[in-house]
Amino acid sequence: MDVLLGIGTRKGLFLARSQDGRGTWSVSAPQFPVADVKALAIDTRRATPRVLAGVLNSHFGPTLVVSDDLGETWSEPDDAPLAFPEDTGAALGGVWQIAPATEAEPDVVYAGVEPSALFRSEDRGHTFELVRGLWDHPHRPAWEPGGGGLALHTVLPHPVDTRRLAVAMSTGGVYQTTDGGETWRPTNTGVTADFLPGELPEWGQCVHKVARDAETPDTLYLQNHGGVFRSTDAGETWQSIDAALPPSNFGFPIVAHPRRPGVIYTFPLVADMDRFRFPPDATCAIYRSEDSGQTWTARTDGLPKVPFWAAVMRDAMCADDAEPTGIYFGTRNGEVYCSADEGDHWQLVADKLPDVLCVRAAVIG
Protein backbone atom coordinates (compact mmCIF):
# COMPACT_ATOMS: atom_id res chain seq x y z
CA MET A 1 0.00 0.00 0.00
CA ASP A 2 1.35 3.39 -1.07
CA VAL A 3 0.17 6.36 1.05
CA LEU A 4 0.91 10.04 0.52
CA LEU A 5 0.65 12.46 3.45
CA GLY A 6 0.72 16.19 2.78
CA ILE A 7 1.80 18.43 5.66
CA GLY A 8 1.16 22.16 5.34
CA THR A 9 3.12 24.39 7.71
CA ARG A 10 3.97 28.02 8.45
CA LYS A 11 7.09 27.59 6.33
CA GLY A 12 6.20 25.40 3.41
CA LEU A 13 4.78 22.07 2.36
CA PHE A 14 6.28 18.70 3.29
CA LEU A 15 5.25 15.45 1.58
CA ALA A 16 5.61 12.19 3.48
CA ARG A 17 5.26 8.83 1.76
CA SER A 18 4.91 5.28 3.03
CA GLN A 19 5.07 2.26 0.75
CA ASP A 20 4.96 -0.42 3.43
CA GLY A 21 1.51 -0.03 4.90
CA ARG A 22 2.40 3.08 6.94
CA GLY A 23 5.16 1.31 8.83
CA THR A 24 7.92 3.72 7.80
CA TRP A 25 7.87 7.14 6.18
CA SER A 26 10.16 9.24 4.01
CA VAL A 27 9.68 12.99 4.30
CA SER A 28 10.56 15.48 1.56
CA ALA A 29 12.44 18.73 1.92
CA PRO A 30 10.16 21.77 2.25
CA GLN A 31 8.48 23.07 -0.87
CA PHE A 32 7.36 26.72 -1.01
CA PRO A 33 9.59 27.19 2.07
CA VAL A 34 8.74 30.82 2.83
CA ALA A 35 4.97 30.39 2.47
CA ASP A 36 2.06 29.47 4.73
CA VAL A 37 0.24 26.36 3.49
CA LYS A 38 -3.16 26.31 5.20
CA ALA A 39 -5.07 24.14 2.71
CA LEU A 40 -4.32 20.85 0.96
CA ALA A 41 -6.15 18.22 -1.04
CA ILE A 42 -5.06 14.94 -2.60
CA ASP A 43 -7.55 14.28 -5.39
CA THR A 44 -7.64 10.61 -6.39
CA ARG A 45 -10.80 10.64 -8.50
CA ARG A 46 -8.87 10.36 -11.78
CA ALA A 47 -6.20 7.79 -12.72
CA THR A 48 -3.45 10.32 -12.00
CA PRO A 49 -3.65 11.72 -8.45
CA ARG A 50 -3.53 15.50 -8.20
CA VAL A 51 -2.16 17.38 -5.20
CA LEU A 52 -3.56 20.88 -4.66
CA ALA A 53 -2.15 23.39 -2.17
CA GLY A 54 -3.14 26.85 -1.04
CA VAL A 55 0.09 28.84 -0.74
CA LEU A 56 0.46 32.26 0.91
CA ASN A 57 3.73 34.03 0.20
CA SER A 58 4.20 37.29 2.11
CA HIS A 59 5.72 38.95 -0.98
CA PHE A 60 3.74 37.47 -3.89
CA GLY A 61 0.45 36.92 -2.06
CA PRO A 62 -1.90 33.92 -2.02
CA THR A 63 -2.49 31.41 -4.79
CA LEU A 64 -3.41 27.78 -5.45
CA VAL A 65 -0.94 25.40 -7.09
CA VAL A 66 -1.36 21.86 -8.45
CA SER A 67 0.93 18.89 -9.03
CA ASP A 68 0.23 15.77 -11.10
CA ASP A 69 3.50 14.03 -10.17
CA LEU A 70 3.16 13.87 -6.38
CA GLY A 71 4.95 17.14 -5.76
CA GLU A 72 7.92 16.73 -8.11
CA THR A 73 6.72 19.74 -10.12
CA TRP A 74 4.00 22.33 -9.60
CA SER A 75 1.95 24.45 -11.97
CA GLU A 76 0.02 27.67 -11.64
CA PRO A 77 -1.83 29.43 -14.47
CA ASP A 78 -0.47 32.77 -15.68
CA ASP A 79 -3.67 34.36 -14.40
CA ALA A 80 -4.36 33.86 -10.70
CA PRO A 81 -6.63 30.81 -10.37
CA LEU A 82 -8.46 32.38 -7.44
CA ALA A 83 -9.40 36.05 -7.64
CA PHE A 84 -12.41 38.10 -6.62
CA PRO A 85 -14.23 39.89 -9.46
CA GLU A 86 -13.54 43.61 -9.52
CA ASP A 87 -17.10 44.56 -8.65
CA THR A 88 -16.84 42.82 -5.25
CA GLY A 89 -14.15 45.21 -4.03
CA ALA A 90 -12.52 42.27 -2.23
CA ALA A 91 -9.00 40.88 -2.39
CA LEU A 92 -7.99 37.29 -1.71
CA GLY A 93 -6.38 36.95 1.71
CA GLY A 94 -5.65 33.23 1.59
CA VAL A 95 -6.97 29.76 0.81
CA TRP A 96 -8.29 27.88 3.84
CA GLN A 97 -9.94 24.84 2.30
CA ILE A 98 -9.65 22.78 -0.89
CA ALA A 99 -12.39 20.17 -1.29
CA PRO A 100 -12.78 17.86 -4.29
CA ALA A 101 -16.42 17.13 -5.06
CA THR A 102 -17.77 13.57 -5.37
CA GLU A 103 -17.10 10.88 -7.97
CA ALA A 104 -20.20 12.08 -9.80
CA GLU A 105 -18.39 15.36 -10.58
CA PRO A 106 -14.77 14.22 -11.05
CA ASP A 107 -13.49 17.59 -12.28
CA VAL A 108 -15.22 19.80 -9.71
CA VAL A 109 -13.15 21.26 -6.86
CA TYR A 110 -14.26 23.81 -4.25
CA ALA A 111 -12.09 26.33 -2.43
CA GLY A 112 -12.97 28.18 0.77
CA VAL A 113 -11.07 31.42 1.20
CA GLU A 114 -10.47 34.53 3.27
CA PRO A 115 -12.49 36.77 3.37
CA SER A 116 -15.25 34.19 3.75
CA ALA A 117 -16.27 33.11 0.26
CA LEU A 118 -16.64 29.96 -1.80
CA PHE A 119 -15.12 29.34 -5.23
CA ARG A 120 -15.90 26.49 -7.65
CA SER A 121 -13.65 24.95 -10.28
CA GLU A 122 -14.81 22.68 -13.11
CA ASP A 123 -11.30 21.84 -14.41
CA ARG A 124 -9.76 20.13 -11.35
CA GLY A 125 -8.51 23.34 -9.81
CA HIS A 126 -6.92 25.25 -12.68
CA THR A 127 -9.54 28.03 -12.77
CA PHE A 128 -12.24 29.03 -10.29
CA GLU A 129 -15.39 31.15 -10.23
CA LEU A 130 -16.87 32.89 -7.21
CA VAL A 131 -20.10 31.31 -5.94
CA ARG A 132 -22.18 34.45 -6.07
CA GLY A 133 -25.14 33.09 -4.16
CA LEU A 134 -23.13 32.91 -0.94
CA TRP A 135 -21.15 36.10 -1.53
CA ASP A 136 -24.38 38.06 -2.07
CA HIS A 137 -26.07 36.62 1.02
CA PRO A 138 -27.53 39.45 3.15
CA HIS A 139 -25.69 38.18 6.25
CA ARG A 140 -22.24 38.45 4.68
CA PRO A 141 -21.52 42.12 5.55
CA ALA A 142 -22.09 41.28 9.23
CA TRP A 143 -19.83 38.22 9.41
CA GLU A 144 -16.98 38.93 11.80
CA PRO A 145 -13.46 37.45 11.85
CA GLY A 146 -12.62 34.83 14.42
CA GLY A 147 -9.25 34.62 16.11
CA GLY A 148 -7.65 33.29 12.95
CA GLY A 149 -9.40 35.62 10.53
CA LEU A 150 -12.60 35.85 8.49
CA ALA A 151 -12.30 32.52 6.72
CA LEU A 152 -14.52 29.90 5.12
CA HIS A 153 -12.70 26.80 6.37
CA THR A 154 -15.06 23.87 5.78
CA VAL A 155 -16.64 22.66 2.53
CA LEU A 156 -18.74 19.47 2.58
CA PRO A 157 -20.16 18.30 -0.75
CA HIS A 158 -23.11 15.96 -0.34
CA PRO A 159 -22.11 12.41 -1.36
CA VAL A 160 -25.31 11.75 -3.33
CA ASP A 161 -27.03 15.03 -4.26
CA THR A 162 -24.63 17.28 -6.19
CA ARG A 163 -26.88 20.29 -5.62
CA ARG A 164 -26.43 20.11 -1.86
CA LEU A 165 -23.41 21.60 -0.13
CA ALA A 166 -22.56 22.68 3.41
CA VAL A 167 -19.94 25.25 4.38
CA ALA A 168 -18.74 26.66 7.70
CA MET A 169 -16.87 29.82 8.62
CA SER A 170 -15.53 31.76 11.58
CA THR A 171 -17.50 33.59 12.58
CA GLY A 172 -20.73 33.02 10.74
CA GLY A 173 -21.59 29.40 11.39
CA VAL A 174 -22.89 26.73 9.05
CA TYR A 175 -24.64 27.64 5.81
CA GLN A 176 -26.17 25.22 3.32
CA THR A 177 -27.50 25.18 -0.22
CA THR A 178 -29.86 22.70 -1.86
CA ASP A 179 -29.91 24.32 -5.30
CA GLY A 180 -26.31 24.19 -6.41
CA GLY A 181 -25.24 27.41 -4.68
CA GLU A 182 -27.92 29.78 -5.94
CA THR A 183 -29.35 30.32 -2.46
CA TRP A 184 -28.01 29.66 1.05
CA ARG A 185 -29.43 29.64 4.55
CA PRO A 186 -27.89 29.37 8.01
CA THR A 187 -28.37 26.04 9.80
CA ASN A 188 -27.11 26.59 13.34
CA THR A 189 -30.12 25.91 15.57
CA GLY A 190 -28.81 24.59 18.88
CA VAL A 191 -25.20 25.72 18.46
CA THR A 192 -24.13 28.14 21.18
CA ALA A 193 -22.31 31.43 20.83
CA ASP A 194 -21.58 32.73 24.33
CA PHE A 195 -19.97 35.89 22.96
CA LEU A 196 -23.22 37.01 21.24
CA PRO A 197 -26.45 38.33 22.78
CA GLY A 198 -28.96 35.54 23.23
CA GLU A 199 -28.17 31.91 23.91
CA LEU A 200 -28.85 30.43 20.48
CA PRO A 201 -28.50 32.96 17.67
CA GLU A 202 -29.56 32.10 14.12
CA TRP A 203 -26.04 32.73 12.83
CA GLY A 204 -22.70 34.19 13.93
CA GLN A 205 -21.35 31.12 15.73
CA CYS A 206 -17.59 30.57 15.87
CA VAL A 207 -17.63 27.13 14.25
CA HIS A 208 -14.17 25.57 14.13
CA LYS A 209 -14.83 22.51 11.94
CA VAL A 210 -17.64 20.27 10.62
CA ALA A 211 -17.47 16.64 9.45
CA ARG A 212 -20.00 14.34 7.77
CA ASP A 213 -20.86 10.84 8.98
CA ALA A 214 -19.62 7.92 6.87
CA GLU A 215 -22.92 6.14 6.39
CA THR A 216 -25.64 8.74 6.97
CA PRO A 217 -25.06 11.95 4.98
CA ASP A 218 -27.58 13.86 7.07
CA THR A 219 -25.57 13.22 10.24
CA LEU A 220 -23.00 15.96 10.84
CA TYR A 221 -20.51 16.59 13.65
CA LEU A 222 -19.37 20.06 14.68
CA GLN A 223 -16.54 21.37 16.85
CA ASN A 224 -17.57 24.82 18.03
CA HIS A 225 -15.69 27.46 19.99
CA GLY A 226 -17.38 26.13 23.11
CA GLY A 227 -18.86 22.71 22.47
CA VAL A 228 -19.08 19.59 20.33
CA PHE A 229 -22.39 18.99 18.55
CA ARG A 230 -24.17 16.45 16.35
CA SER A 231 -27.01 16.92 13.88
CA THR A 232 -29.06 14.01 12.55
CA ASP A 233 -31.24 16.14 10.27
CA ALA A 234 -28.67 17.66 7.90
CA GLY A 235 -27.93 20.57 10.21
CA GLU A 236 -31.48 21.74 10.82
CA THR A 237 -30.94 21.21 14.56
CA TRP A 238 -27.87 20.42 16.66
CA GLN A 239 -27.46 18.62 19.99
CA SER A 240 -24.49 18.72 22.36
CA ILE A 241 -22.37 15.55 22.48
CA ASP A 242 -19.62 16.74 24.80
CA ALA A 243 -21.13 15.77 28.17
CA ALA A 244 -19.05 12.59 28.22
CA LEU A 245 -15.93 14.27 26.81
CA PRO A 246 -13.97 14.41 30.08
CA PRO A 247 -11.32 17.07 29.67
CA SER A 248 -12.82 19.97 27.73
CA ASN A 249 -15.38 20.83 25.06
CA PHE A 250 -13.09 23.34 23.34
CA GLY A 251 -10.91 22.40 20.38
CA PHE A 252 -10.41 22.91 16.68
CA PRO A 253 -10.56 19.66 14.65
CA ILE A 254 -13.35 17.12 14.26
CA VAL A 255 -12.78 14.14 11.96
CA ALA A 256 -15.27 11.45 10.94
CA HIS A 257 -14.15 7.95 10.01
CA PRO A 258 -14.62 7.53 6.24
CA ARG A 259 -16.43 4.15 6.50
CA ARG A 260 -17.54 3.43 10.08
CA PRO A 261 -20.70 5.32 11.06
CA GLY A 262 -20.62 7.09 14.39
CA VAL A 263 -16.82 7.05 14.72
CA ILE A 264 -15.31 10.51 15.25
CA TYR A 265 -12.10 12.03 16.59
CA THR A 266 -11.12 15.30 18.25
CA PHE A 267 -8.23 16.90 20.15
CA PRO A 268 -9.53 18.86 23.17
CA LEU A 269 -7.89 22.01 24.50
CA VAL A 270 -8.45 24.04 27.63
CA ALA A 271 -9.78 27.50 26.81
CA ASP A 272 -10.30 30.47 29.07
CA MET A 273 -10.35 34.23 28.80
CA ASP A 274 -6.55 34.28 28.88
CA ARG A 275 -6.40 31.96 25.85
CA PHE A 276 -4.68 29.13 27.70
CA ARG A 277 -5.42 26.69 24.86
CA PHE A 278 -3.17 23.83 25.85
CA PRO A 279 -4.17 20.15 26.13
CA PRO A 280 -5.90 19.36 29.44
CA ASP A 281 -3.41 18.22 32.08
CA ALA A 282 -0.67 18.86 29.50
CA THR A 283 -1.52 15.46 28.00
CA CYS A 284 -1.33 14.71 24.29
CA ALA A 285 -4.46 12.64 23.58
CA ILE A 286 -6.78 12.01 20.68
CA TYR A 287 -10.32 11.37 21.89
CA ARG A 288 -12.35 8.85 19.87
CA SER A 289 -16.06 8.15 20.02
CA GLU A 290 -17.57 5.04 18.44
CA ASP A 291 -21.18 5.90 19.22
CA SER A 292 -21.65 9.36 17.71
CA GLY A 293 -20.42 11.17 20.80
CA GLN A 294 -22.29 9.39 23.59
CA THR A 295 -19.00 8.14 25.01
CA TRP A 296 -15.35 9.09 24.40
CA THR A 297 -12.03 7.40 25.11
CA ALA A 298 -8.53 8.88 25.12
CA ARG A 299 -6.13 7.20 22.70
CA THR A 300 -2.56 7.88 23.84
CA ASP A 301 -0.45 4.78 23.07
CA GLY A 302 2.68 5.99 21.31
CA LEU A 303 2.02 9.69 21.90
CA PRO A 304 4.34 11.97 23.92
CA LYS A 305 4.17 11.84 27.68
CA VAL A 306 3.41 14.84 29.89
CA PRO A 307 4.00 17.67 29.85
CA PHE A 308 2.82 18.44 26.31
CA TRP A 309 2.01 22.04 25.44
CA ALA A 310 1.15 22.06 21.71
CA ALA A 311 -2.26 22.46 20.06
CA VAL A 312 -3.76 20.87 16.94
CA MET A 313 -5.39 23.23 14.43
CA ARG A 314 -8.72 22.72 12.67
CA ASP A 315 -7.31 21.08 9.52
CA ALA A 316 -4.28 19.46 11.14
CA MET A 317 -6.12 16.17 11.63
CA CYS A 318 -7.39 13.83 8.91
CA ALA A 319 -8.16 10.25 7.90
CA ASP A 320 -6.97 8.37 4.84
CA ASP A 321 -9.03 5.99 2.67
CA ALA A 322 -7.14 2.78 3.44
CA GLU A 323 -8.36 -0.37 5.18
CA PRO A 324 -7.83 -0.18 8.10
CA THR A 325 -8.08 3.58 8.08
CA GLY A 326 -5.13 5.71 9.07
CA ILE A 327 -5.63 8.73 11.32
CA TYR A 328 -3.13 11.60 11.28
CA PHE A 329 -2.52 14.80 13.18
CA GLY A 330 0.12 17.52 13.29
CA THR A 331 0.91 19.90 16.13
CA ARG A 332 1.98 23.48 16.53
CA ASN A 333 5.40 22.33 17.73
CA GLY A 334 6.07 20.61 14.39
CA GLU A 335 5.31 16.97 15.22
CA VAL A 336 3.21 14.73 12.97
CA TYR A 337 1.72 11.41 14.11
CA CYS A 338 0.03 8.52 12.32
CA SER A 339 -2.16 5.69 13.58
CA ALA A 340 -2.40 2.82 11.09
CA ASP A 341 -5.11 1.14 13.19
CA GLU A 342 -7.77 3.82 13.48
CA GLY A 343 -6.38 5.49 16.58
CA ASP A 344 -5.45 2.54 18.80
CA HIS A 345 -1.69 3.10 18.47
CA TRP A 346 0.40 6.02 17.25
CA GLN A 347 3.81 6.52 15.67
CA LEU A 348 5.85 9.62 14.92
CA VAL A 349 6.05 10.47 11.19
CA ALA A 350 8.09 13.66 11.43
CA ASP A 351 9.24 16.16 14.03
CA LYS A 352 11.04 19.48 14.28
CA LEU A 353 8.92 20.83 11.43
CA PRO A 354 7.49 24.35 11.42
CA ASP A 355 4.06 24.97 12.95
CA VAL A 356 1.70 22.43 11.30
CA LEU A 357 -1.45 24.01 9.84
CA CYS A 358 -3.01 21.17 7.86
CA VAL A 359 -2.58 17.51 6.94
CA ARG A 360 -4.15 15.39 4.18
CA ALA A 361 -3.56 11.73 3.35
CA ALA A 362 -4.63 9.30 0.63
CA VAL A 363 -3.80 5.92 -0.83
CA ILE A 364 -2.13 6.58 -4.19
CA GLY A 365 -1.17 3.07 -5.28
Characterize this entry briefly.
This protein is mainly β and 365 residues long. It contains one helix and 27 strands. The longest helix has 4 residues, at 132-135.
Describe the protein.
This protein has one helix at 132-135; strands at 3-9, 12-18, 26-27, 35-43, 50-57, 61-67, 94-100, 109-114, 117-121, 129-130, 151-157, 165-170, 173-177, 185-186, 207-212, 220-224, 227-231, 239-240, 250-256, 264-269, 286-289, 297-299, 317-319, 327-330, 336-339, 347-350, 356-363. It is mostly beta strands and 365 residues long. It has a single domain, classed as YVTN repeat-like/Quinoprotein amine dehydrogenase (Methylamine Dehydrogenase, Chain H, 7 Propeller), CATH 2.130.10. The strands form seven sheets. Strands 3-2-1-27 form a four-stranded antiparallel beta sheet, with no helix packed on it. Strands 7-8-9-10 form a four-stranded antiparallel beta sheet. Strands 11-12-13-14 form a four-stranded antiparallel beta sheet, with no helix packed on it.
What is the helix content? under 10%
Total strands: 27
Q: Indicate the CATH class.
A: Mainly Beta
At the third CATH level, what is the topology name?
Methylamine Dehydrogenase, Chain H
Number of spatially distinct domains: 1
Strand order of the largest sheet: 3-2-1-27
Structural class: mainly beta
Please count the helical segments.
1
Q: Give the topology string: H per helix, E per strand.
A: EEEEEEEEEEHEEEEEEEEEEEEEEEEE
The appropriate CATH architecture is 7 Propeller
Question: Quick one: overall form?
Answer: globular
Q: Any low-confidence stretches, pLDDT <50, length ≥5?
A: none
Q: In CATH, what is the homologous superfamily? A: YVTN repeat-like/Quinoprotein amine dehydrogenase
C-alpha Rg, in Å? 19 Å
Approximately what portion of the residues adopt beta-strand conformation? 35-45%
Distance between the ends: 6 Å
